[in-house]
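Blinded run. Sample ID left blank on purpose so nobody reads anything into the name before looking at the predicted structure. Input follows.
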Amino acid sequence: MILVTGARGNIGREVVAGLVSNGQAVRAAAFDAAAAKRVSAGVETVHFDFADAKTYGPAVDGVERLFLMRPPQITDMENTLNPFVDFAVKAGVRHIVFVSLLGVEGNPRVPHYAAEQHIERAGVPYTFLRPSFFMQNLNTTHRAEIRERDEIYLPVGRARTSFIDTRDIGAVAAKVLCEDGHDGRAYDLTGGESLDYYQVADIFSEVLGRKITYKDPSSVAFLISTVRHGTPLKFALVMQMLYRSTRNGIADVLTEDVSRLLGRSPRTFRQYVIDYAESWRR
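Blinded prediction complete.
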């Protein structure tokens, strides 16, 4: 049995689909189990909340492998994700695949770093997936600014980013969960091209048929605007930190891990915008 946390998310649903297609027994965990059942028809679902230890037991009962995804809003590893990892290990989980962050090994201030350290100490085999910036962040977290204001508002300047499609991350995770040989490994997952946000805006403009502009605010202006538009302060601070790292060049890295693991090239940014174009239609 494989437990997939965040089963309703952009990555989780792809992991579930990949595991099912490989004939694996899957339990999809989500805060809203009924909604997860609609996403993953025919798959066992369970209500799960990192902040509620009473949900841990039913989630990990009989589970041998765990796909672990940190909810973006959770920054307190000590009282949420770490206790769940300890519980899962004691319950018999023998392999954890954790979605971390590209460059995390040199960035101890982000929550992913603390999570990796704790998993390493947990005493079970693990695999870390360290993806670059998700393409799908632009049709979720940044959807409104593109759709309503025709702008991309991020404090990264001309720094380049090796965007990756979450569908490719999910495919890699499913493969790692289905086969041996990945224990103790960390894979840096990137797309096949490195783009700055001016180029990103141009691609959006061409595909959507209207002008999308990249605006480069200061880090403080970005934080204020993000909170003003409804993002919780702790989450906004994590976003600010990650974009500061991007501005410093940490996301301008291209690797071959996706191609090597999947036997094909990663999806392009243009294909992503084409596939999700309806997200930004008015």
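Unblinding after everyone has recorded impressions. Residues 233-247 form the longest helix (15 residues).
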